[in-house]
């Protein structure tokens, strides 16, 4: 595809309607006028967009949001109503020619270079390098930051969840209702998918981004049925023979047969719940996944528990999801008295019995149930209990697939919850994750900044007593150096005038600010991190389907050593500068330092 | 205005394009099909939307988002492409009639009652009561939650900032770049304004919502000028006489005259900075507000400080904004050596000298400068230092208005920072607040839920071992009872069949779940909290301008006793139920409780 074709394709792509030039801080526009008025229309600048610290106390970040930045550049244009608004808002003395200048402004003279979207990235290495007219480069600052900050934060958060959950567990994003505004939810769905989630509950995200959408029913569905009389239609035709079956009769029959396995009597289970599950199964015979924790069983099992359960519960570690759970109080005291089940269990057993009954009835009609969702209580323990029941049913009725039923868990889950569940040996196949994921509760903002590093060919350095805040001046290139084992060793920033590092040649890598920290590296592979994405008013990279960006996240993460990715006390990945850039920084620093500077 | 006119006005109002029926969880749609398929099309339900805990460890919440909810109801409609997407997404067995049903669906049979937007609200008291067909009431759940949760969280956060900042300080929202997505930023601007902020940097929010927008320039503006040679034009005409003046000459002259007051020599100040400030002043002679902390002074003042400064600094409490500040290290050690200024001061003095010089030059041209912005360092101390210089200049040159120059502070400010600055006696007139405000860093999500409380006239109760999670069943009304001093005493939930409490008549108010907690209240005023907002397909309340909602927040907060609003250990406000509702809840509870229940 030619650049022009790519550009017009990008122009057609769906873009959030509010991503437009006025989605910015006013000071960008007042500065634009002051630059314009000061004869700086032809000044040429280089800005770096980067962050200073990885989020979530981790040592890596996933870069995302690039495609949205490109759409923004492609469509950058002040509408008549924008200009009208600015005329009313800015002081009266603004020269009318400035508004004419704004009216015609596009981003065609901007050149944008960027790291590939979905790559693992590190502090101080610019994610975007923006070159071009000072005024325009300044005008796009806030919007670029807005588009990169949350996207990258979200993708990083999702990637971290994926790492702790492991490859074999599905992760679904369920956070729309708690997201920071409608678009906070939509962005969360998109970047959670990029970061490694398997789907979302957000239907609009599914429609817009072609992300798999998932969901079955809520507690309110169950409570909207009071008794078996509430079932409207009981008939389900066999999947193959099309013979009509009475699903109510089959289910009540099965409920009797499996009650011993699930260890409660049919009378103890809720009939309203059974009615709800039968109705749901008739509506979705191929997609029967039931929420099973709506009701307590109706009566304690006075007889005590069969030995296998008692044994299991004694080994029960009492895990409780970190907040919002119902059972804290009970888990603190001995939970199994002569009255029988713990509260934790009671809440599951009615649903489990009803689910198994309907699932077995569905099986008679040629359908296989999908599984259950647990939304409260001790998720590790309940998942083990449920799996055990499934295994027993599989064995009792010679239905091996019953062992493989999906168990979804979805109560206020975060990274730590998953780590703790892993320790306890849960039997969960899928996590549905909401608030903590979509609001990035542990750290709700990434601190990307956008700094002027060169103007009219002259480097700019922002000094600060806090060395972490000193900017690395000038037009730079970034390289990732890999070792023989395929792992990334170090990211190296160089002045753009320097030759690229070469495979097999030793490169002096220096800490940007500490003279004593330096090392020679002989790379087995060198990756030039920047790609030109936008130049001469055209997009120069092919937009990738989300699925490819998602794959890039995983392949990029695989190049990181495990100790950099681990949850507890990860090792920092090294970011270095070339010797040439080191000297350049420190010469400039000296020129700009206060005379008499001691530190 | 008639209901029809209100409705069509609301239909025309700007709405975020993504607020549409598919902005929901898939399970709402699968449940809708299961309800439809189970013959529940004519079932009528009542849902309550409420939260269980106030955010930010406070004891109040501001309700916001209602107008967006109404726009959503007005425009609720599945487009052809929505239906097409759902057909592809749902299983093949879905009956085609269901899609026809969805296609024609509107919210006209829904009745929405709500507390007035901008009111102070409390846990368990429903903010919205949704009545109508079960299927439709269920389908709108997620979107309503999304629209209320963040709006209310944000308005509450902003109101808390306003309370700690006091009435006499301006508050500006500067958070767009760190917000959770573009619309997270836009929503933050809107609801921060409602909560009590005075303006935003977000230009699009200004355009959409008619919020005052503010902003001047960034550090990059200053660093884009290297020397006085970078000034393009030096001429400014006098505001009244229109006589042209040379602002560069005037400024350099003034710099010499005020250098003793600001206590650095002109040679120590940055010329690039002076060039930038002159250029900015020429562009905005009526709006000259300068960022003054870009450069260190060039040389230590070896002679030591004049006594007044030394005295001041000895009394300096060493406050440092809680994170991201430059000076932590230095503030831990004695900061004033024989070398002269602390780092904190050095960063301010160059900018302060240059600002005062340009402000005085502007004064010669008939313009009054606005003030300065400080974006780093010890904000309390620096503001005092700056104010002291302004006072001295005011006195030295007989310009009393110079004392009144605005000091804006904007470095990573949160509620605690402001409280701490207050303790130290700062001289700041305006805070610009970003990340902590717009992402609600202290608690990034409000946990509103949406619970079925009645179906076909039958109450529904959701039981839980956690009493806080038990829902209050049935169709209810809510009243706020006020004492003789005008303060709100208690919120009272009643069954809708009960007569409203009356002024001067004693009312028995009971804790919903603790039998022993009850009290008689004799209200001096009774406010019925619910207003019908949407009925028979029409909006029934007049949409209020943002400014009125903003005023409502402050007037509503004034009805709360101070101890409920205080920052540390606030007193919980009481929410009660009538005796009738109490008995109703507990009868239902008993009917639904497991036999043998002990707790």
UniProtKB/TrEMBL annotation, chains A, B:
Report if keyword Transferase is assigned.
yes
Tell me its EC number(s), please: 6.3.4.21
EC top class named in words: ligase
Biochemical pathway: Cofactor biosynthesis; NAD(+) biosynthesis; nicotinate D-ribonucleotide from nicotinate: step 1/1
The known PTMs are summarized as: Transiently phosphorylated on a His residue during the reaction cycle. Phosphorylation strongly increases the affinity for substrates and increases the rate of nicotinate D-ribonucleotide production. Dephosphorylation regenerates the low-affinity form of the enzyme, leading to product release.
What UniProt keywords apply to this chain's record, in alphabetical order?
Ligase, Phosphoprotein, Pyridine nucleotide biosynthesis, Transferase
| Domain named Nicotinate phosphoribosyltransferase C-terminal: residues | 476-582
Instruction: Report the domain of life of the source organism.
Output: Eukaryota
Residue ranges of the Nicotinate phosphoribosyltransferase N-terminal domain? 22-149
The UniProt catalytic activity note for this protein reads: 5-phospho-alpha-D-ribose 1-diphosphate + nicotinate + ATP + H2O = nicotinate beta-D-ribonucleotide + ADP + phosphate + diphosphate
Domain Nicotinate/nicotinamide phosphoribosyltransferase residues, every copy: 370-471
Tell me which Pfam families the record gives: NAPRTase (PF04095), NAPRTase_C (PF17956), NAPRTase_N (PF17767)
Instruction: State the family it belongs to.
Output: Belongs to the NAPRTase family.
Role summary:
Catalyzes the first step in the biosynthesis of NAD from nicotinic acid, the ATP-dependent synthesis of beta-nicotinate D-ribonucleotide from nicotinate and 5-phospho-D-ribose 1-phosphate. Helps prevent cellular oxidative stress via its role in NAD biosynthesis.
Q: What is this protein called?
A: Nicotinate phosphoribosyltransferase
């Amino acid at each position: 595809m030619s650049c022009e074709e790519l550009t017009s394709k990008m122009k057609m792509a769906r873009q959030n309607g509010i991503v437009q030039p006025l989605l910015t801080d006013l000071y960008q526009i007042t500065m634009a006028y002051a630059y314009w008025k000061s004869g700086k229309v032809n000044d040429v600048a280089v800005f770096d967009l980067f962050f200073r610290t990885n989020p979530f106390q981790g040592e890596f970040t996933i870069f995302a949001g690039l495609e949205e930045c490109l759409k923004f550049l492609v469509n950058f244009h002040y509408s008549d109503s924008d200009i009208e608004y600015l005329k009313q808002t800015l002081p009266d003395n603004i020269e009318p020619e400035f508004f004419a200048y704004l009216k015609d402004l596009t981003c065609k003279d901007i050149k944008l270079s960027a790291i590939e979207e979905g790559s693992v990235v590190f502090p101080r290495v610019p994610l975007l390098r923006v070159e071009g007219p000072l005024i325009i480069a300044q005008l796009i600052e806030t919007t670029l930051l807005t588009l990169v900050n949350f996207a990258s934060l979200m993708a990083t958060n999702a990637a971290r969840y994926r790492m702790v959950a492991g490859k074999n567990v599905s992760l679904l994003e369920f956070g729309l209702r708690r997201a920071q505004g409608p678009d906070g939810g939509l962005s969360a769905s998109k970047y959670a998918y990029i970061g490694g989630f398997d789907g979302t509950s957000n239907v609009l995200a599914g429609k817009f981004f072609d992300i798999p959408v998932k969901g079955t029913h809520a507690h309110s569905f169950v409570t909207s049925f009071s008794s078996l009389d509430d079932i409207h239609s009981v008939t389900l035709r066999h999947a193959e023979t099309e013979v009509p079956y009475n699903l109510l009769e089959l289910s009540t029959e099965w409920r009797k047969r499996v009650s011993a396995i699930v260890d409660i009597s049919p009378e103890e289970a809720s009939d309203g719940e059974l009615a709800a599950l039968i109705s749901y199964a008739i509506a979705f015979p191929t997609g029967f996944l039931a929420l099973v924790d709506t009701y307590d069983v109706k009566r304690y099992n006075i007889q005590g528990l069969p030995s296998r359960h008692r044994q299991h519960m004694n080994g029960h570690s009492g895990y409780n999801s970190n907040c919002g759970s119902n059972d804290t109080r009970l888990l603190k005291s001995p939970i199994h008295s002569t009255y029988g089940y713990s509260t934790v269990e009671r809440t599951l057993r009615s649903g489990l019995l009803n689910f198994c009954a309907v699932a077995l009835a569905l099986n008679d009609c040629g359908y296989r149930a999908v599984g259950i969702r647990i939304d409260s209580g001790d998720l590790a323990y309940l998942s083990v209990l449920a799996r055990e029941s499934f295994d027993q049913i599989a064995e009792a009725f010679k239905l091996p697939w019953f062992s493989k039923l999906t168990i979804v868990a979805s109560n206020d889950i975060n990274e730590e919850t998953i780590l703790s569940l892993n320790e306890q040996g849960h039997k969960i196949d899928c996590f549905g994750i909401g608030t903590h994921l979509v609001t990035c509760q542990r750290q709700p903002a990434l601190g990307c900044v956008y700094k002027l590093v060169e103007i009219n060919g002259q480097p700019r350095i922002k000094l600060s007593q806090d060395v972490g805040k000193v900017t690395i001046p000038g037009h730079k290139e970034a390289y990732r150096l890999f070792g023989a084992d395929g792992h990334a060793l170090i990211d190296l920033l160089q002045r753009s005038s320097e030759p690229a590092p070469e495979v097999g040649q030793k490169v002096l890598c220096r800490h940007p600010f500490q003279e004593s920290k330096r090392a020679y590296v002989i790379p087995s592979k060198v990756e030039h991190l920047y790609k030109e994405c936008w130049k001469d008013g055209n997009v120069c990279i092919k937009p990738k389907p989300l699925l490819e960006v998602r794959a890039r996240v995983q392949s990029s993460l695989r190049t990181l050593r495990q100790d950099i990715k681990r949850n507890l006390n990860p090792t920092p990945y090294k970011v270095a500068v070339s010797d040439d850039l080191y000297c350049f920084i420190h010469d400039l620093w000296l020129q700009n330092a206060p005379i008499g500077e001691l530190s």
